[in-house]
Sequence to fold (194 residues):
Amino acid sequence: MRYGPAILAFMLALVTPTFALGQQGMPVDKGELTHQQKLDRLFSELKRSQNEKVATRIASRIGQEWAASGSASVDLMMQWAGKALEERKFDVALDFLDQVVAMRPDYAEGWNRRATVHFMMQNFAKSMADIEQTLELEPRHFGAISGMAQIFMAGGNKQLAFNAYQRVLEIYPMMRNAQNEVVTLSEELEGEAI
Fold:
């Protein structure tokens, strides 16, 4: 079978990775998805998933993408902060996370983790400020929105908590906790309206 030059070039283009120069002049394989493209695809899958276990796996993969800082130093500080948090050494965790957000202010997960530490310390205003920064960088951060809902609940604002959980479900429809909270809050809000 003979192929003309145009068809041969087309077929080679299909199987040969194309490269472009990345941010630092290094070749980048255009066949691989960027971080943002991976997230977009995963969020699309998460929204369409009707199986809770599959959705949980997709959410976990999203969490892995969020955790990828692109910096070995930041990754190490995030690990140290996580260990300090497990040991309930909140001040130590905050020290590491303060450094993370100073080094990488565009890294949403650094802000989100710091929001979590503030929440655990019941510093709700500081937690909310970090959640807002997280959502400015990644508006689909369902973990941060869930944290916001919990802060609203702690403050006794059921309507805002209900709205936040509904927002979570728009992004992650199979999140069981958010589903349960929406049902509970809906019933409570209806009871209060009577």
